[in-house]
Amino acid sequence: MPVTALVSAKSSGVTTAALALTLASKRPSLLAECDPVGGTLRAGFLQGQVSAGFGLYHLAAAERTGTEALANAFASHLWGMDEAGHRKLLPGLTDPAQAAALGRTWPALSEVMHVMATEAGYDVFIDAGRLALESGRLHTTLTPAPLLHRADLTLMVVRGTEQSLTLARHLVDPLRTELAERGSGPDALGLLLIEEGPYQAHQVTDALKTPVMAALPWDPDTAGYFTNGGRPPRGYARSPLLRHARTATEQLEAAASRRHIHQQYSPRPANAQLAGILQRLAERGGPRG
Questions:
Q1: Mean pLDDT of all residues in the chain?
Q2: Could you write out the DSSP letters of every residue in the chain?
Q3: CATH code of the domain in which 81 resides
Q4: Is the pLDDT of residue 85 over 50?
Q5: Residue 288 in domain
Q6: Domain membership flag for residue 170
Q7: pLDDT at position 36
Q8: Using one digit for the tens of pLDDT, what is the confidence trace for 95-117?
């Protein structure tokens, strides 16, 4: 199953979209709330059920002990969102100041998430929050960069509005370059469209030169429940947001599968240093005996 990271240029509904995908998946699913600015589900959707002694921040100390300690801590800090235990949440930070402690934890945490996906068969969704750049690169503290680098798919969440597209336009190319140079490849980048505003999927694809891999409807009633918690709106299980999210999870799995097959059968790029040596040898006519 894929590991999918969601980011945005500004508040575009990343958390709501990630939660909808997690709850709608036909497979076991995990939502990791990894926004360095802090998580919102603890106080909103979960209505304070989860204390500050539970969640992402506590994995940093475990990682310093070792991989096994991190894996055990990860498992013990997952919150079940349904009685069957098929929907799990790793609650996010309670204070942005905690983000600095996670700098060395992200790579190991990424490995754990991929094990959850490949070995345990979970759809893993990462709420990576707002994208932050520093000198054209992903900010090492304000963005969980290693999670984006390793994700099977990295989706920028956009709305079909002029403002949202304008904000995203300045970030798409740096993110694509980052994934090409440090991640799993530029083709990991796609868009998740929130269908609010006049622009349709094909127009958004053309505007940002990036494919819309899935779309979710503008459903303020269900989105409000995901943001604030409380009593689910009437017809919640059949709401437009959840119905379309089920389709979206299948589309994302198919996209990740196509990437995986392509990577298996594509020649791997040569080591840059080795390629340079071979080129110089070729220019000299090869080594002489």
A1: 89
A2: --EEEEEESSSSSHHHHHHHHHHH-SS-EEEEE--TT--STTTTTTTT-S-TTSSGGGHHHHHHH-HHHHHHHHHHTPEESSTTS-EEEE---SSGGGGGGGTTTHHHHHHHHHHHHHTS--EEEEEEEE--EETTEE-TTTS-HHHHHH-SEEEEEEESSHHHHHHHHHHHHHHHHHHHHHSS-GGGEEEEEEE-SS--HHHHHHHHTS-EEEEEE--HHHHHHHHH-SSPPTTGGG-HHHHHHHHHHHHHHHHHHHHHHHHHHSPPPPPHHHHHHHHHHHHTTS---
A3: 3.40.50.300
A4: yes
A5: no
A6: yes
A7: 94
A8: 999 999 999 999 999 999 999 99
